[in-house]
Amino acid sequence: MTTAAVPASAPKPLNRRLKGWPGWVLLLGVVVVALLIGSTRSTGPLTDADRLDGIAQRIACPECDGESVYESQSPAAANIRIQVASLIKQGTYSDDQIIAYVQTNFGTKTQLVPKATGFDAIVWALPVFAGVCAIGGLTVAFRRWKLAADTVPTEQDRTLVDDALREQDDGR
């Protein structure tokens, strides 16, 4: 496979320019913007029953091990569901305020699921992003290694190696 010599002043093709550091910076910028949009987007209005279920799934049962208030049938979980339903019915509290209320009244270890907005969402998404970048980087590296291994030497390459071996043998 022969490649023609490219003058130093000739611009690189578009695909080569995008594979360099500007392409990675652009990709990083797109991912950061997507994470910020995803972490601040709201899903719209919910019914009271949807809100109750959503909040109950995010609160850990104080008596049960590893169960949410939504799943648990314990008296404490039932009391929390009743309290949350009454706070929702009042209509003056947000979901986060209700969860904060439950945390202050039932202890700090009641939050089962981290918040899905703001900094918490970014912290949970970063390992996934790092894994995707690592897989992408390995894919690019393996493709380059495969292309380098598949390169067939030209007759000029063979002549150059033969000349170098002859010079080495003559020097001995």
Q: What portion of the residues fall into strands of 2 or more residues?
A: under 5%
Task: Please tell me the CATH architecture of the largest domain by its name.
Answer: Orthogonal Bundle
How does the major sheet shape up? Answer: none
Total beta strands: 0
Tally of helical segments: 7
Superfamily at the CATH H level of the largest domain? Cytochrome C biogenesis protein
Number of domains: 2
Question: What oligomeric assembly is this protein in?
Answer: single chain
Mean pLDDT: 81
Order of helices and strands: HHHHHHH
Uncertain runs with pLDDT below 50, 5 residues or more? none
What percentage of residues falls in helices of 4 or more residues?
Answer: 55-70%
CATH class of the largest domain: Mainly Alpha
**Based on helices, strands and strand pairing, what is the structural class?**
mainly alpha
* CATH-defined fold name of the largest domain: Helicase, Ruva Protein, domain 3
Per the principal axes of the C-alpha atoms, what is the gross shape?
Answer: elongated
How far apart lie the N and C ends? Answer: 34 Å
